[in-house]
Specification:
single chain; 223 residues; three-stranded antiparallel sheet; 12 strands; 22% helix
Length: 223
Amino acid sequence: MTTTATEIKERPILFSTPMVQAIVDGTKTQTRRVVKHGLSDSTMSKPDIKASITDNGQMVHFKVVDGKLRESFCGIKCPYGQIGDRLWVREAWDYSDSLEEPYLYRQKEMEEWLPEVFNRMKWKPSIHMPKEACRIKLEIPNIRVERLHDITEEDAIAEGVLWVDAVPGGFSGWKDYSGKNLAPLESAKVSFKTLWISINGKESWDANPWVWVVDFKKTDQSN
């Protein structure tokens, strides 16, 4: 079959169980992933480096201007596709004994099973999930690139960070994913910072890398 330029493509993407929960709840509609650029860290950290992205969100172009006013370019293709494409979610899973529902999903069963049963399960890593087991598909309406630290409060909320209700004698706020503090945080941006560090490490946050910002919405095919 001949592939056309308008054909919708589907690519896999990994999400942790808490982020799958946020997608299911409808609170996560955005994800950030580091741009794998192949340029030196010293080049990418320059304050005068510029980035532009094609209209379909498929390619980002970096431009570096040195002291002699010479320009160098690096074009990088988005590994998550382009606007209009779809992502199929890989999550922690396992096989079931049911012919009608042959797969189990950690996020789903966490809500439905008794803790003593659930905690005995050994889930298969999301990286090993086959496409036929996928239950959540996401459509991409927009892609852009920016520095990690440029995230706004609104976008941090769209990343799916969790709002924590007040406990007796405490106050409400955003979840601290570092696990160091029981008290919630005052902003979604700080909450997202702790989430990023918990997944990617403090060095990654401190580097302030360029990131793909991928907006998404669940398709009608999602369960």
